[in-house]
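Render Beta-ketoacyl-ACP reductase in 3D.
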Amino acid sequence: MTRHVLVTGANRGIGRSIAAAFVDAGYTVSSIHRSGDLPEGVHSALADITDTDAVNAAFDALEAEHGRVEILVANAGITKDGLLMRMSDEDFETVLDVNLAGTFRCVRRATNSMLRQRFGRIILVGSVVGLMGNPGQVNYSASKSALVGMARSITREVGSRGITANVIAPGFITTDMTDELPEDVKKQYEATIPAKRFGAADEVAAAAVYLASDAAGYVSGAVLPVDGGLGMGH
């Protein structure tokens, strides 16, 4: 039986590439997202992950049609960048509500299904800045670093039930967002990366497919960097 993967925010960027990679690998793939279209072969449920009832209803609908979720890739996230002294309470709280609490809501619901079948893969999409920090991203960095503690606590709670929980920490990845950066800014970033280039979303997707596989059954509580060496030692 084909395993059911749910990728949050598969309508764009890294999430879109991850969902497409799972389709290509032969999985049944669904997404909870707020808007936009999805890659071919990905089943859709529209919901806001800041709303617990909406998350639960989306899971219920997708599972009724495609079977229990066995692999969760919690990818959906937002940024509201700004320097610490100018960052509003709202900009801090909104980012944490989506990136951290939203991930928690999805993980909590997915784990309910995973415990029943004694198998699960929880893959949290973090960020290199969650480990090494970044000016103007106190809120985003805090939300992403917290995912490490989340994954490790989940591992200790449910690791004996065939469930793993890991974090992928992408570095600078080529997406629509980075495409809009001025060339001189891109070059400044590239100069700090040992690989001297931005990563491709497909490279992050490959890490997700590995962590979801049977081959990664003994990998849990880990942080897997996909950052060209940028975050070494963090």
